[in-house]
Design brief:
Blueprint lengths: L1 H10 L7 H20 L13 H14 L7 H19 L7 H9 L27 H20 L11 H5 L1 H14 L5 H5 L36 E2 L5 E5 L5 H11 L11 H5 L16 E10 L2 E13 L10 E8 L10 H14 L5 E8 L1 E10 L3 H9 L9 H14 L6 E8 L10 H12 L4 E7 L6 H10 L4 E4 L2 H10 L1 H5 L1 E12 L4 E7 L19 E4 L3 E10 L17 H6 L7 E10 L7 E8 L12 H16 L10 H10 L8 H16 L2
Parallel strand pairs: 5-6, 5-8, 8-9, 9-10
Antiparallel strand pairs: 1-12, 2-11, 3-4, 4-14, 6-7, 11-13, 11-15, 12-14, 15-16
Helix pairs in contact: 2-5, 2-6, 2-8, 3-4, 6-8, 12-13, 12-17, 14-15, 15-16, 20-21, 21-22
């Protein structure tokens, strides 16, 4: 009878398993395994204190040791089926773990935020308990969760345990043990976290070479289509004019592409934003009477021995924190359905918590969200009521379409309501750039922003996430809102942008900053401006105070680099004009008074609250020239390495023969002081690009 029942059981197929239920069961089983590993004295799966395996041994050993059964066929015929049946009865109703622990595991949905490089202790208030666990444990748990997800997706509905190979099952256990060992060794990890698996965001499984891969949808990423600046002849076009740019979004976007295992879209690379991403120790003005001053260095070009680089750098003065004006900030937050990803709204919320902790008690914060319709989450509130502001941020959830224009109008209304005279009034828009409801064209939104900035309310744009990024629109809004654009891909980047560099983002010291460089045709044959393609201005715009330009904040650095070709160099690309007649400006420039000059740099700017611009001028001559690359200041050489890297990524033909290895050598030799690790990270990006370019 027993044999027949066992035979029937062996032919019964279990009911089809739901993949999610299967994943939960597997997680629960592993959790039970972990409990045994961490507490060897406790019995597994048996409330009476004895393991099922020990019960089987207790029954089995006397039977097989009897002389009349030992070594006989009767042992196989009688004892083996009996032992199998007894094992089935003992284990089929025994819970592996307590139901409460399983429920707690299934319901736990906390997702850690991408953190990037290690940053200051200020981040501790903006991350969950899970994100404080040792990184090795987090990484191991992430791989385990990804393995489970991939295996679940690979097996059809109704998969049996027997469908998994021993390697698939056993392969999960050692890494799980290693993860628990890492957690157990961390003194700061709470005991509760030892008992529960850490929630992790799905992440790509690295291929055999160890490089992480990401699946991107390049068709949905939108960038401004800007052609690289051409080489211009000084004889025909001696004047170059452009607007200042302090945005940094391009560098962060390039970094995320490379660390994700993909070369960036060349259109996403704006060289000036990559250069200006890094802090530099350019000479500062002595006082606020002149908000910045220019420092010019002329040096040999590392990638072309027949040309030179003219490096123009300015540094704004720093506003002392004690004298910083009061800030009236409106957080305009995209909570549409496209923001429902770990590196979007969850990261955004943590980033804004960091910013709130940076503000002064008398500053004011308001919160507006938009998704289909705009809504006011928080009326203007003093930062002294910090808990109220942080609670409002924590309650944000994603869902719906994106009605950005209505949200922008609502945010400006709140900014006007709490307007601070002689203070900082700014809307901070945080989005993945998807405006698909209402006035969605760049020009329509540009007009809205232009109208509002006339009231003294500026706009800063923060981009989040991938796969849906409308970088072109972000740039348009920031440029026309007298603000800047940054891309936040990790909590470390949020720390840099919103805490370490908060002063430069929030407190403008000069607006409508324009550059104009005139080259002496007697000394310079050709020039090429590196970057600033989207910031080009007409020559006549320089003296027109009605033309908008970029703003510079407290302590901001702005760097511009020209590749120039000296007169008579074999690198000259344009033939002399047969019928060319020197212009009046050229004749004046070549006069005896200015004969030794290479160029003349002019800068126009307006003080905050003023409408008339002021002028700063700097002549460039042989006193600004260094004979070798190594003789140039350290920060100049490093910024040139960044410029070379950006041009290489954007496939500029001038850098075709200059290798990533050469760029890396130049950057490494000029890294200098690197307190936050930005420059070391840059060296890593060069190595990644070198490897990816050879695939």
């Amino acid at each position: 009878m027993m044999d027949k029942e066992l035979e029937k059981l062996s032919h019964l197929a279990p009911p089809a398993a739901d993949p999610q239920a299967r994943a939960r069961a597997l997680a629960a089983a592993m959790q039970a395994f972990d409990g045994a590993e961490n507490n060897a004295a406790a019995a597994q799966g048996n409330a009476k204190g004895r393991r099922p395996s020990s019960i089987i041994n207790w029954i089995w050993s006397p039977a097989v040791n009897k002389k009349f059964l030992a070594g006989s066929a009767l042992a196989t015929l009688l004892v083996v089926p009996a032992a199998g049946y007894l094992t089935l009865e003992l284990t089929r109703n025994q819970p592996i773990v307590e139901k409460e622990r399983i429920a707690g595991t299934v319901s736990k949905k906390e997702t850690p935020i991408p953190t990037g490089r290690p940053v200051s202790p200020a981040l501790s208030e903006a991350v969950t308990e899970e994100s404080r666990l040792p990184q090795s444990a987090a990484a191991d748990s992430a791989r385990i969760a990804q393995d489970q997800e991939q295996q679940s997706a690979a097996k059809p509905h109704g998969t049996r345990i027997s469908d998994f190979s021993p390697d698939e099952i056993a392969g999960l256990l050692p890494r799980r043990r290693e993860a628990n060992s890492s957690v157990a060794s961390g003194a700061a990890a709470p005991q509760q976290q030892l008992a529960e698996p850490m929630a992790v965001a799905p992440s790509p499984v690295p291929p055999a070479d160890g490089r992480a891969q990401v699946q991107l949808d390049p068709s949905r990423e939108r960038f401004a289509n800007a052609t690289a600046n051409p080489i211009k002849s000084v004889a025909a076009d001696p004047v170059s004019t452009f607007s200042a740019d302090v945005d940094t979004a391009s560098y962060s976007f390039v970094r995320r592409s490379l660390t994700g295992g993909a070369m960036p879209d060349p259109q996403s690379v704006r060289v000036e934003e990559m250069i200006n991403y890094f802090p530099y120790d350019w000479p500062r003005p002595d006082n606020a009477d002149q908000p910045f001053k220019a420092t010019v260095t002329v040096m040999p070009t590392p990638w072309n021995h027949d040309t030179e680089l003219m490096h123009v750098a300015i540094k704004g003065y720093d506003i002392a924190p004690a004298t910083a004006p009061h800030a009236n900030l409106v957080f305009l937050i995209d909570v549409s359905g496209s923001m429902d990803e770990p590196d979007k709204l969850p990261l955004l919320k943590s980033a804004f918590r960091l910013l709130v902790n940076r503000l002064k008690p008398d500053d004011t914060v308001s919160i507006v969200t938009y998704a289909g319709n705009a809504g006011t989450v928080l009326e203007p509130t003093r930062v002294s009521e910090k808990s109220k502001i942080l609670s409002a941020i924590d309650r944000l959830e994603a869902g719906g379409s994106t009605g950005g224009a209505e949200g922008i109008e609502a945010a400006y209304d709140l900014a006007q309501k709490a307007f601070v005279k002689d203070g900082v009034n700014r809307v901070i828009l945080a989005t993945d750039g998807d405006f698909n409801v209402g006035p969605s064209s760049d020009e329509d939104l540009k007009r809205i922003i232009e109208e509002k900035r006339k009231d003294g309310i500026f706009l800063t744009v923060l981009g989040f996430g991938r796969g849906n990024l409308n970088d072109s629109l972000m740039q348009t809004l920031a440029q026309n809102g007298n603000g800047s654009a940054a891309y936040i891909d990790t909590l470390a980047e949020a720390q840099k942008t919103l805490v370490e560099e908060a002063g430069s983002m929030l407190f403008p010291i000069a607006k409508d900053v324009k550059f104009q460089v005139e080259f002496n045709p007697e000394r310079i044959a050709e020039y090429r401006l590196i970057g600033y393609e989207t910031r080009a201005l007409k020559r006549e715009d320089f003296n027109n105070d009605r033309v908008d330009a970029g703003d510079i904040g407290s302590g901001h650095s702005v760097t511009a680099i020209y590749e120039i070709t000296p007169k008579g160099s074999p690198a000259v690309m344009n033939d002399d004009l047969r019928y060319g007649v020197p212009s009046k400006a050229s004749a004046e420039t070549s006069g005896s008074a200015h004969q030794g000059e290479l160029a003349f740099v002019k800068m126009r700017y307006k003080r905050p609250g003023e409408d008339k611009s002021a002028l700063i001028t700097t002549p460039v001559d042989d006193r600004n020239t260094v004979a070798t690359v190594d003789a140039a200041p350290q920060d100049v050489r490093f910024s040139v390495a960044v410029a070379a890297f950006g041009q290489k990524l954007s496939r500029t033909s001038a850098l075709h023969a200059y290798s990533y290895q050469a760029i890396g050598d130049l950057a490494a030799a000029s890294r200098g002081a690197d307190p936050f690790g930005y420059r070391s990270d840059f060296l890593g990006l060069i190595r990644l690009a070198d490897g990816l370019s050879q695939q």
